[in-house]
User: Which sequence fits this backbone?
């Protein structure tokens, strides 16, 4: 796992390194054997560094060893010849995913070129972002190890926080902005949430995901980096727009992007969030996996600790559990930690294959969702450009049938009218936000055609007829099979037209598309 140092710590470390290098570069010789900490400035100009550890073994001109990751390192191999170092990481083939989960992605190999200069490794990697320069220094083996597991609380059933009576709606920075999110972007999204009409359609939360963190001040309070000069002022701004604001952390020492996590500061961080005026926390397992056991009781205790800390602030803060569905929080333990929503899968990306795999795998867990406690198949990609309009309509339709949180993940300030229309369609949103609070499920699948249904409070049902095939398909739907008898009235929601159906009806469904009905 990559680690992060605040810039001030790095300056100190660098100054120390310069002073000892001055004393004895001869001592360092050309020996690469040992453990190395490599610091790479984050590319978003936030003044933070990623920290990576290597174990290097030098045998003549041959380099082997590993990039240190837990539980398993990534092997490296290469050469060190005439003062020039060259090595590549050899990422393993990912194991098959658990049943119903999308395949894990193959990590790319990374090539490092560099020199050993006065005991320091000067490394260059080349990728999509161009050349990236890092500096490595020798460290002890202990310095490469994660901190110890801390004692976790005894399990208990925390009182419900009373929030998220319907699935939370809002925006999250990760899908579009990732590490580039900053104060200006968040203000811009709040402005656009209002001007686009999304706020009036029900979208409330403006959620900052990973990479806002810097480190800790002398009192151990978490601090934000250069991109976020004043969190309290930012929260005030978002609130002034009639919106709410969310933030992100991890129970581990580092977040998934290698930034400061809440390890050993859980209660203190909850207090900081409350003091800033935060209304929503996404708590992402990340590096806690390196320290704690990966089983339901352990994860429950980890999430309970923050749940209790949030409750103790007496501020209403929606609590979003992000452990990728590893220990099935929907089976009961997520709710006990005051979790309002919990991820059920790994990360979505803006591709049909990703959305299709995640969305259509959400079968047989519907009965676990209820008002205040929702299954979360990850955030929306609508408007990000990687899917067709039909694919995005499928994404939105499936997510509302799943009673999923609706967290837009696009740039709200540059939306096309088509994207706005898709995200703000009142009839579609009404399915998601229906007060009965039931998650829909698949009724049947026939080849690439899947028919899903969600019961609604007025006795009607939302029916999604999905075509997972890339070409249009005709499907004759027997409404008796969906529990309707005699003549039924249906609203074709995306086409905005009313249908009267007796018995069965044939629909032509676009490739990767959907017909979404509300049937009574
Ligand atoms: C994990 C989460 C994502 C996002 C990133 C940020 O991968 O699942 O949703 O929060 O971390 O680093």
Assistant:
């Amino acid at each position: 796992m990559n680690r992060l140092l605040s810039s001030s710590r790095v300056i100190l470390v660098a100054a120390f390194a310069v002073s000892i290098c001055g004393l004895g570069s001869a001592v360092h010789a050309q020996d690469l054997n040992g453990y190395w900490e490599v610091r790479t400035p984050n590319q978003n100009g936030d003044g933070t560094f990623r920290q990576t550890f290597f174990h290097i073994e030098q045998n003549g001109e041959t380099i082997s060893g590993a990039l240190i990751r837990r539980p398993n390192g990534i092997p490296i191999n290469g050469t060190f010849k005439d003062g020039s170092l060259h090595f590549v990481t050899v990422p393993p083939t990912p194991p098959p995913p658990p049943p119903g989960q999308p395949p894990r992605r193959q990590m790319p190999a990374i090539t490092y070129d560099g020199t050993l200069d006065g005991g320091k490794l000067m490394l260059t990697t080349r990728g999509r972002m161009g050349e990236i320069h890092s500096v490595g220094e020798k460290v002890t083996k202990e310095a490469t190890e994660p901190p110890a597991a801390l004692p976790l609380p005894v399990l208990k059933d925390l009182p419900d926080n009373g929030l998220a009576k319907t699935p939370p709606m809002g925006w999250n920075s990760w899908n579009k902005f990732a590490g580039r999110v900053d104060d200006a972007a968040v203000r811009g999204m709040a402005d656009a949430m209002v001007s686009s009409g999304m706020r009036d359609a029900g979208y409330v939360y403006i959620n900052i995901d990973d990479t806002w963190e810097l480190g800790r001040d002398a009192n151990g309070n978490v601090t934000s980096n250069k991109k976020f000069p004043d969190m309290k002022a930012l929260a005030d701004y978002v609130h002034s727009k009639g919106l709410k604001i969310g933030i992100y952390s991890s129970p581990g020492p580092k977040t998934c992007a290698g930034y400061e996590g809440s390890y050993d500061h859980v209660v203190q961080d909850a207090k900081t969030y409350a003091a800033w005026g935060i209304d929503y926390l996404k708590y992402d397992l990340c590096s806690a996996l390196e320290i704690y056991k990966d089983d339901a009781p352990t994860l429950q205790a980890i999430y309970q600790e923050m749940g209790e800390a949030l409750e103790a602030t007496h501020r209403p803060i929606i609590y979003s559990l992000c452990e990728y569905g590893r220990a099935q929080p929907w089976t009961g333990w997520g709710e006990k930690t005051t979790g309002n929503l919990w991820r059920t899968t790994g990360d979505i990306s803006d591709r049909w294959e990703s959305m299709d795999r995640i969305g259509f795998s959400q079968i047989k867990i519907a009965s676990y969702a209820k008002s205040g406690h929702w299954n979360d198949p990850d955030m929306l990609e609508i408007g990000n450009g990687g899917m067709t309009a039909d694919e995005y309509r499928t994404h939105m339709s499936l997510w509302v049938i799943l009673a999923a949180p609706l967290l837009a993940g696009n740039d709200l300030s540059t939306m096309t009218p088509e994207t706005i229309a898709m995200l703000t369609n009142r009839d579609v949103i009404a399915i998601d936000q229906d007060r009965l609070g039931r998650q829909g499920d698949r009724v049947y699948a026939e080849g690439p055609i899947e028919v899903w249904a969600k019961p609604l409070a007025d006795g009607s049902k939302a029916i999604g007829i999905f075509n997972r095939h890339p070409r249009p398909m005709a499907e004759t739907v027997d409404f008796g099979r969906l529990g309707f008898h005699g003549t039924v009235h249906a609203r074709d929601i995306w086409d905005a037209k009313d249908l009267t159906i007796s018995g069965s009806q044939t629909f032509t469904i676009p490739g990767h598309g959907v017909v979404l009905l509300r049937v009574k």
Q: What stands out?
A: The first strand starts at residue 3 and ends at 5. The CA atoms of residues 216 and 222 lie 4 Å apart. Residues 1-28 have pLDDT under 50 and may be disordered.
